[in-house]
């Protein structure tokens, strides 16, 4: 429908997986497909940020989708070790 076209830019397809709203997802959800209470808290935090900024911009608006994923990898790595 019309809403699908309106918000299609908010989703990104990662290597053949489902289309995902990566800008709202935690690193473990994006990179590992792992959904936990912690990833829910992350998404809620992004929602609060949107509310407080009156939804004036998309999360990480200065980054491309590929840069968001690359940046997410930094949460995953800690001096060459996996975090989490």
Automatic annotation (TrEMBL):
Record keywords: ATP-binding, Kinase, Nucleotide-binding, Receptor, Transferase, Tyrosine-protein kinase
Keyword check for Repressor: no
SUPFAM superfamilies: Protein kinase-like (PK-like)
Gene3D superfamilies xref list: Transferase(Phosphotransferase) domain 1
Reactions it catalyzes: L-tyrosyl-[protein] + ATP = O-phospho-L-tyrosyl-[protein] + ADP + H(+)
Keyword ATP-binding carried by entry: yes
Cellular component GO terms, alphabetical: plasma membrane; receptor complex
EC number per UniProt: 2.7.10.1
A Pfam family recorded for this sequence: PK_Tyr_Ser-Thr
Enzyme class: transferase
MF-aspect GO terms: ATP binding; collagen binding; protein tyrosine kinase collagen receptor activity
One BP annotation, GO: positive regulation of neuron projection development
Domain Protein kinase, residue spans: 1-84
Entry protein name: receptor protein-tyrosine kinase
Gene name of the record: Ddr2_0
């Amino acid at each position: 429908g019309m809403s699908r076209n309106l918000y299609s830019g908010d989703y990104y397809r990662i290597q053949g997986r489902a289309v995902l709203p990566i800008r709202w997802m935690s690193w473990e959800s994006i990179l590992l497909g792992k959904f936990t209470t912690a990833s829910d808290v992350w998404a809620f935090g992004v929602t609060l940020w949107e509310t407080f900024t009156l939804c004036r911009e998309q999360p990480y608006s200065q980054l491309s989708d590929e840069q968001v994923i690359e940046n997410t990898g930094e949460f995953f790595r800690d001096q060459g070790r996996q975090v989490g």
